[in-house]
């Protein structure tokens, strides 16, 4: 039986008096044996965060579309989508398939790029030999986003007819479904996808500022133009493109959050005071103080708060003082047992937001916790939740617990990262992974023929190393069934923020 949020919080608060769990700092630890929480007394597994980091980045090679380079390490993949864009007489070859299908959705691809870039900006200095691989993963996306924004006043936001693609189960290399191209322009705007694309280009420009200054300048110039377009022609992209982007990547949260997020990234990338002014003037109308604690491909409010709090905490931009308060409210909603806590966790301790691809919220939230802890430490500050003082150390311990759960510290003792640890998902919802590779089966596998492979109980023949799946349900159950896309499908935006968290943890434990 699932606990209600209030019951869960009450139970956790009461149990904090009977356990020394790190979740319960601030409560007296009486060291009474409590069977409800006995799993927390087990010795924490010493995870190989460096190995997990390597694999979390390698995963992106398995999602590549286009002409693969000679350096390709995920060798069961081959070239695909080589004529993408030709339907509109543009070059849209490259980029990433977002998840287990063969469509290129621009909205989650841009968010993936922003989060990979943010991972590198905060923790890239700790990545050592993995930094070049992380940069490659970002560049594979930004090269595509530059193509998608090459024509002023137009952004190409999707390649592939999702409804027709989803009626087939075929390798990307065999695709014969329509590679339809969908765009936004001033007649059919899409401030959400445009501003997210601007954020991605701006964030990536910072990644390449030293290693490739020419490329960096190209990215930031394009980011500025794309943001101007996003702001001038306002509207949600799923209004005009509803039948093509919904229900897959509908813009449920509106476009205001992306405008704030995009401006925040341009402020960080350019230091141009016009973006600071834009944020100060428009912040409230764009939902800066909106009370929500969900951060993912659709809703950027929390990310914008954390990002803008850095300008106040580290760079001492006094006019952004309120963002520290907004960020603190998010933290207080997360900390179990703290006043104002409103977040649900599974019995095994996993942050639980929703049944469909819940792990994306685990990885994005863990990254925000570690990043905010970094900013707070720089400023020698803490979070005050109604009198309960939450330290940066506490934020790091909560984030570590989430990552450790993902890597195997959970009731099923299963890693939710493919290829990591002794037990991991074998039947992920992913076409390329579940069908025999071209090397093994050179002949084309037709659209409907692939479903016989999809329905088999056999493990996937190609290991999509590093892929993090949607994860367990609210009771910590995971059936490992290919047809269960809500729990068994990996996605680029699940992995992107995890890259930063794993770099931090690998460094902290002396593995890098």
From TrEMBL:
Residue ranges that the Swiss-Prot or TrEMBL entry lists as coiled coil: none
E.C. code:
3.2.1.4
Q: What class of enzyme is it?
A: hydrolase
Q: Name the keywords, alphabetized.
A: Carbohydrate metabolism, Cellulose degradation, Glycosidase, Hydrolase, Polysaccharide degradation, Signal
Q: Which reaction does it catalyse?
A: Endohydrolysis of (1->4)-beta-D-glucosidic linkages in cellulose, lichenin and cereal beta-D-glucans
Active site, renumbered: 429, 480, 489
**PANTHER family, per database record:** ENDO-1,4-BETA-GLUCANASE
Family according to the record: Belongs to the glycosyl hydrolase 9 (cellulase E) family.
* Protein name in the entry: Endoglucanase
Q: What is the lineage of its organism?
A: Eukaryota, Viridiplantae, Streptophyta, Embryophyta, Tracheophyta
């Amino acid at each position: 039986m699932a606990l209600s949020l209030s019951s869960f919080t009450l139970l956790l608060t009461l149990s904090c008096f009977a356990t020394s769990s790190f979740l319960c700092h601030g409560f007296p630890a009486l060291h009474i044996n409590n069977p409800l929480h006995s799993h927390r007394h087990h010795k924490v597994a010493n995870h190989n965060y460096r190995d997990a980091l390597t694999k979390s980045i390698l995963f992106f090679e398995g999602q590549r579309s286009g002409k693969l380079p000679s350096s390709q390490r995920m060798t069961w993949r081959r070239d695909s989508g080589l004529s993408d864009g030709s339907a509109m007489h543009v070059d849209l070859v490259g980029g990433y398939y977002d998840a287990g299908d063969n469509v290129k959705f621009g909205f989650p691809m841009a968010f993936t790029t922003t989060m990979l870039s943010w991972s590198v900006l905060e923790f890239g200095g700790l990545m050592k030999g993995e930094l070049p691989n992380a940069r490659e993963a970002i560049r594979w996306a930004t090269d595509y986003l530059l193509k998608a924004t090459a024509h002023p006043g137009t952004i190409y936001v999707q390649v592939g007819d999702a409804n027709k693609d989803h009626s087939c189960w075929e390798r990307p290399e065999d695709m014969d479904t329509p590679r339809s191209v969908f765009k936004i322009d001033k007649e059919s705007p899409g401030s959400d996808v445009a501003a997210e694309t601007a954020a991605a280009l701006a964030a990536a420009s910072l990644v390449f500022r030293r290693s490739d200054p020419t490329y960096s300048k190209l990215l930031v110039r394009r980011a500025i133009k794309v943001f101007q377009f996003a702001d001038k022609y306002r509207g949600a992209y799923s209004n005009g493109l509803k039948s093509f982007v919904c229900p897959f990547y509908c813009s449920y949260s509106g476009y205001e959050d992306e405008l704030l997020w995009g401006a925040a990234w341009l402020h960080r990338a350019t230091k141009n005071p016009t973006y600071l002014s834009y944020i100060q003037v428009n912040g409230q109308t764009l939902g800066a103080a909106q009370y929500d604690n969900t951060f993912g491909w659709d809703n950027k409010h929390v990310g914008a708060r954390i990002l803008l709090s850095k300008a106040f905490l580290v760079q001492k931009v006094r006019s952004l003082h309120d963002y520290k308060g907004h960020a603190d409210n998010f933290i207080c909603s997360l900390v179990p047992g703290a006043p104002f806590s409103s977040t649900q966790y599974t019995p095994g301790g996993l942050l639980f937001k929703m049944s469909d691809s819940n792990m994306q919220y685990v990885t994005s939230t863990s990254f925000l916790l570690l990043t905010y802890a970094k900013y707070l430490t720089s400023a020698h500050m803490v979070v005050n939740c109604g009198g309960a003082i939450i330290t940066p150390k506490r934020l790091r311990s909560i984030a570590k617990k989430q990552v450790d759960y993902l890597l195997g510290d959970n009731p099923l003792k299963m890693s939710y990262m493919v290829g990591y640890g002794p037990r991991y998902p074998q039947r992920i919802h992913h076409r390329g992974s579940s069908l025999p590779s071209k090397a093994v089966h050179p002949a084309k596998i037709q659209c409907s023929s692939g479903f016989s492979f999809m329905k088999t109980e056999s493990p996937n023949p190609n290991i999509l190393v590093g892929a993090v799946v949607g994860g367990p349900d609210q009771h910590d159950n995971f059936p490992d069934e290919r047809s269960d896309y809500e729990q068994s499908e990996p996605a680029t935006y699940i992995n992107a923020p995890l890259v930063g968290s794993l770099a931090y943890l690998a460094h902290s434990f002396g593995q890098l």
